[in-house]
Amino acid sequence: MKLIVGLGNPGFLYARNRHNVGFMCVSYLAKHYKIDFDRKQGHARTGMGNIGRNKVVIARPQTYMNASGEAVKALFQRFDVTPADLIVIHDDLDLPTGKIRLRLGGSSGGHKGIDSIITYLGTQDFNRIRVGIGRPEADTPAANEDGVIGYVLSDFTDDEKKIIDEAVPRVTEAIVLLLARGITIAMNKYN
After folding, report:
1. Segments forming the whole domain that contains residue 24
2. CA separation, residue 35 to residues 7, 77, 108, 110, 126 (Å)
3. Among 68, 109, 89, residue whose Cα is nearest residue 164
4. Catalytic residue status for 111
5. How many domains does one find in the chain?
């Protein structure tokens, strides 16, 4: 069993926010593999199915971003998975919009959702797919901490949305390769 978690904030108000790109990616993945988010388990909307030879649970936590670890830990306990079975997809301010990067382990890089997961699981050793959302220009008011919060909680511009619409299917391709051939081969192709 593999657990694939897209990070975001629940609710219509946040649906198109930059911070919800993880939700966008797992929604696309689930639709592509005809998996419905038809269950509420462990503070998350979940769907179960198969991707290749792998049985998967795809999840969108229904906690807010900063409490993502609560939902992930509950799913860990319910499905008896290990950190090696976890793939987390999340936004990254330090990557250009639409750029994707895969990695195993490491720090949170300041991402509050990843911080929460590390805290609740007690380990950094899980797979991550980071999706770039860009960062506000350094010399603008949006570059301070309050401005960055407003930036991640705002919707993509029309130009950014076009780039993200191209990146989301690449994330699905990366997940499929990661499941079939492992993180190293997936990183070599997509990083």
Report:
1. 2-190
2. 18, 22, 29, 32, 23
3. 89
4. no
5. 1
